Amino acid sequence: MAQDSARQAPSAPATPARALLPTVVPALLVGVAASLVLLGVSAAAEELQDVLWQDVPDALGVGRYSVPWMFAVLVATGIAVGLVVWKVPGHAGPDPATTGLDAPVLPPAVLPGLLLAAALMLAGGPSLGPENPIIAVNVSLAVLLGARAAPRTPERAWVALAEAATIGALFGTPVAAALVISEALAGQRIKGRLWDSLFAPLAAAGAGALTASLVAEPGFDLHLPPFGRPGWGDLLAALVIAPAGALLGMCAVHAFPYVHGAFRRLRHPMLMLPAGGVVLGALAALGGHLTLFKGLDEIAVLAHDPEGRSAGGFATMAVVKLAALLVAASCGFRGGRIFPAVFVGTALGLCAHALVPGVHPAVGVSAGVLGVLLAVTRQGWVSLFVAAVLVASPGILTLLCLASLPAWLLVTGRPQMQLRADGSAVR
Questions:
Q1: Mean pLDDT across the chain, nearest whole number?
Q2: DSSP-derived secondary structure letter, 253
Q3: What own/partner pairs with CB < 8 Å and gap ≥ 24 does 183-189 have?
Q4: CA–CA distance from 386 to each of 26, 43, 220, 400 (Å)?
Q5: CA 81 to chain centre
Q6: What pLDDT digit, counting tens, does each position of 182-195 carry?
């Protein structure tokens, strides 16, 4: 009966090729441009990071990651970003606690300040990634320039191209963008078939990913010990660690409105952001220098030596990094939450391996990242994708798909790590 009904159900008419072909060139242009914006901001931030964390402390004769220097740089970063938010036109965009991957279209005057605030944050060490501000900038530029070049094209089309292009560049593959867009389109009425709607964004994501790969060679494989065919013990470990990661992530999600509200009571960016820098400096002193920055380079250091720390050491790093993410996202630093969450999940997975040596590091890391990302992002496909690409093993995907089920039951229907303008949590 079900098969007969499926055969009788009319399928959506396919979009003709002549309607899709004209979208290819604009998609490719947006993809390359969006990737170059990301790479440019990242390169500038890396140069400034080298100055702040290598050149200046070496010239002063202080330890690069000594506690006083970490504290000083994080507080100075809070002051610098606070000045940008206070004085630069546009105030570096809306409250970052209210934004996610689905970025708003901002006025052109806001974009320079937002780029500057993001670059200062990336260089100074707060635990946030570049995704939210860079997506917002690319979306706004695509809409601004696209409206002039093709006034009849809907604004939403330019938004989709820019979002896909930036996500493709961030992760080095268009697959991530396709998964994000597919999830966003779920429940919406679309013209034609799903692949018709993905056609132009996928071209933009492919161009963005290829540009990033040619220029920067991004990579997510942590080169953990090889993982072969999964066994029952691996399945049990994944079914335990992923929900544990989700519960850990939900601790930050539930605390988010309260911590954000506490910083908002300070009312002025020159109070909120330096105060955030003070708290982040104290957390860095507790967790060490690997808990600084967005976390992508730092997880490679952790994964290089899975046996190099005790379970308590990994657990401390996971909790400190999660607290640093919570504070940085609450006090006004411009940045995204995906990459720090990956660090938290990695540390959690390696903690599980240290506690129970029978837990394979690849299983622990991928399951931990899956659970934390599900809680923080509420993006199921992206969480699965990121967790899987950290481990270059086809066998891990089956475990992750099964482990995502109990983890999803813990997070679905609950608040997200994103707030409304009034400070209430988004569900």
A1: 89
A2: H
A3: 183/379, 183/380, 183/381, 183/382, 184/102
A4: 28, 23, 8, 11
A5: 20
A6: 777 665 666 667 67
DSSP secondary structure of 64-101 = TT-HHHHHHHHHHHHHHHHHHHHHSTTTTSS-GGG--S
- Asked if the model's pLDDT at residue 415 lies above 90, the reply is no
pLDDT tops 90 at residue 219: no
What pLDDT does residue 5 have?
A: 44
327: phi then psi, degrees, rounded to nearest 5: -70, -45
Q: Which residues pair with 129 in a beta bridge?
A: 336
Show the tokens assigned to 298. 């730092």
Per the CB < 8 A criterion, the answer to whether 213 and 32 are in contact is no
- Sequence-separated (6 or more) residues with CB below 8 Å from residue 160: 181, 200, 201
CB 341 within 8 A of CB 382: no
Beta-bridge partner residues of 425: 419
Strand boundaries in 257-311, DSSP class E = none
Tokens for 116? 């500057």
The CA distance from 272 to 369, in Å, is 30
Q: What is the pLDDT of residues 99-129, one digit of tens each?
A: 887 888 999 999 999 999 999 999 999 999 9
CA dihedral 101, 105, 111, 114 (to 10 degrees): -40
Q: Which 3 state secondary structure label does DSSP give 191?
A: coil
Tens digit of pLDDT for each residue in 377-395? 888 888 998 898 888 777 8
Q: Are 274 and 78 in contact (CB under 8 A)?
A: yes
Contacts of range 301-308, beta carbons closer than 8 Å, 24 or more positions apart: 302/343, 302/346, 302/347, 302/350, 303/222, 303/223, 303/224, 303/346, 303/350, 303/361, 303/365, 304/223, 306/224, 306/225, 306/350, 306/353, 306/354, 306/361, 307/354
SS3 call for 129: strand
